[in-house]
Design goal:
alpha/beta; two-stranded antiparallel ribbon; binds NADP nicotinamide-adenine-dinucleotide phosphate; Rossmann fold; 37% helix
Length: 231
């Protein structure tokens, strides 16, 4: 299957393209400048040790047209115009929005769209004929590129369409991660905020590419909630 990565010439796009190729699909990297996308698609396979036949580079519109699934990896400041550009070419497709609201000029600030989150903005712009799932918001590009290492992150996803989230979950599994559905598109207001939280943790504690994993209570806990305690 061909998967487009619109705005795929940045770090996160390169990481997503790597994981698409790792999953056995073909990554069609899109850019405003097709030559830039072609250059990256020529260099990236050797850098990450994957088959060059699994990478292509082209313009954003051509990528969106070619992809059966379309990932969007642009800065929040370019989100609206990029979605409006690809809208005619993604009807009936699964769009996985990776965009986080982090201000590209100040990583410690979020620029929240008027719809609430990037996922909600994407769904509002693309309309009901497009299945939008928000995902990969809080996994670092470095983790995505290091496809042979065990993941330090789970993938928190959100979206209004259950079937779309099932499809995204299967694809994310192929890409080497476990997906957790966190709710409808408005859950983007929570999971997209985590990107900035992780950046802050990186700055404040010098943590190397911190990630978020869903964990459960260890077995064998003896002291458990008991209503009788409060009666
Ligand atoms: N980097 C990470 O570790 C990370 C982690 C989690 C989430 N994210 C999110 O993932 C998204 C991409 O991150 P990134 O680090 O890859 O960003 P980036 O390098 O700043 O941007 C990605 C690509 O977007 C395109 N772009 C930039 N400005 C544009 C504009 N005004 N109009 C249209 N396209 C534009 C550029 O491609 P062309 O110039 O080739 O068109 C650029 O290579 C962001 O929303 C970020 O918050 C990133």
């Amino acid at each position: 299957m061909k998967c487009a990565v619109v705005g795929g010439t940045g770090w996160q796009g390169a990481g997503i393209a790597t994981r698409i190729a790792k999953a056995g699909h073909t990554a069609v990297i899109g850019s405003r400048d097709p030559d830039r996308a072609r250059r990256l698609s020529a260099k990236l396979p050797a850098h990450v040790g994957l088959d060059p036949a699994r990478f292509e580079g082209t313009g954003n519109v051509e990528a969106a047209r070619a992809g059966a699934v379309v990932f969007v990896t642009v800065p929040i400041t370019a989100h609206r115009e990029t979605l409006e550009l690809i809208r005619p070419h993604v009807e009936g497709k699964l769009v996985i929005d990776v965009t986080a609201p982090v201000n590209p000029k100040n990583h410690l600030e979020n620029l929240w769209p008027k719809e609430g989150s990037a996922t909600e903005e994407a769904q509002a712009i693309l309309g009901d004929d497009v299945e939008v799932v928000g995902a990969f918001k809080s996994v670092s590009a470095t983790m995505l590129l290091n496809h042979t290492m065990p993941p330090n992150s789970d993938i928190l996803i959100c979206g209004d369409d259950l079937q779309a989230k099932h499809r995204a979950t299967l694809l994310i599994r192929e890409m080497g991660f476990t997906a957790y559905d966190t709710g409808k598109a408005d859950a983007g207001r929570t999971i997209e905020g985590l990107t900035q939280t992780l950046i802050f943790l990186n700055y404040a504690y010098h943590l190397n590419q911190p990630g978020i994993k869903v964990v459960e209570l260890a077995h064998g806990m003896k002291i458990l909630p008991d209503e009788k305690l409060f009666q």
